[in-house]
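DM from R.C. (forwarded with permission)

"hey, sorry to bug you on a friday — could you get me a structure for this? deadline for the figure draft is monday and I only need the backbone to look sensible"
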Amino acid sequence: MTINWSDQRALILAPHPDDEVIGCGGLISRISEAGGQVHVLYVTIGAHVSHPKAGFSTRAENLEEIGKVAAHLGITSWHVALPEVAQLTLDQLPRRTLTTVIENATPISLATLKPTLIAFPHPTSYNQDHQAVAEAAITALRPSDRRKRPHPTLVLAYEQAADQWRLTPCSPPTFFIELAPQHLSAKLTAMDLYASQRREHPHTRSDETLRSLAVLRGTQCGAAAAEAYECVRWTA
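My reply, with the result:
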């Protein structure tokens, strides 16, 4: 089945700034290039304290970097849902709180945006914030009456290179999105714009890691490069 990217109204759930690029940068580039819409809901941008060398940054830095990335990738709109919540503490919030954020508590919630496509972190991530957002998303997207609740046609769980670092086995990818050279380039440049977050190889947030994973996923689907997802639901 061929997807018309120009018709898509995508909602990307990012626990933190840069997750949307690492997991979905190529997808975002494909949709925006085709003229579709991409909206990114950042659950938190972290705390006031800054330790850039360790991978943390101030809110001001995060907001500036988000603006640059959004402009570069052609993101239609973005919103920070819980700016006062510190990173790596989302698992301490009631699931109801996170579920409500996704369902109806922001300008780009499910109820307001009614997306055709939604992507969120894979629940097998070792990162507790990713797990919390993934579980809340699964709850928010539970099967229901489509006449009464938004039901995105395509529900995807995106991956990051270190997701395998868990004892719980990861499911193999079931959905591949081919990336042309410009899409992969756009993804890598976007990660570079997250200057406070990117790292040198062999870190999982290095250009080499992102490029290598894209090449591997491409090989697995017969393309030069690709992003891989677990397809949670596809309503045809």
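R.C.: lifesaver. The chain has one domain: 7-172+230-234.
me: no worries. The longest strand covers residues 226-234.
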